[in-house]
Amino acid sequence: MPGLLLRLLLLTAAGLLLLAVLPASWPRPDLVVLFLAPTSLACGRSAGAWYGLGGGFLLGLLGTGNPGVLAGVYGLTGLVLGILGEEGEPPGVFMHLLAVLSGTALVGLGLGVLSMRFPALGGPEGAILKLWFPRVLAVNAVLVWPALRVFRRLAGPRAFRSRGLVP
Predict the structure, then answer these.
(1) Which of 23, 39, 102, 151 is least surrounded by Cβ atoms within 10 Å, i.e. has the fewest?
(2) What is the pTM of this model?
(3) Amino acid 165: pLDDT
């Protein structure tokens, strides 16, 4: 599992650097949430929380925002999605779509609450989140299937044996 998390974090860092060169007017996906959903659903709450912490920290380092705040919000989001993924049968594409949309909403809500309640932490302002949320939600919804395929290729069949998802 640590190897998978390291590969995901390296891929996330490369993706964030690639997104940084795009024009500002283009909508950007939330790469951390796109990989956080399958990690949490397939590997459980622990892997989701760890990837969320690392991905949020990377997002803060390579993007804009406080790395600690982003790591905390994404880590909690990964924990919640992992708890949801541990209930029931192996998740399908619809569950991944639901997890990505829910994860995006949880991140937006968490950042909004923290920025309103504790403005000194350096979180994004409400006006920025209002512009960010609908665009990211739409782009994330479109990219669920490609992100899931990339995750499955990185993880390989061995990552799912411990959860009984692969015979």
Answers:
(1) 23
(2) 0.87
(3) 39
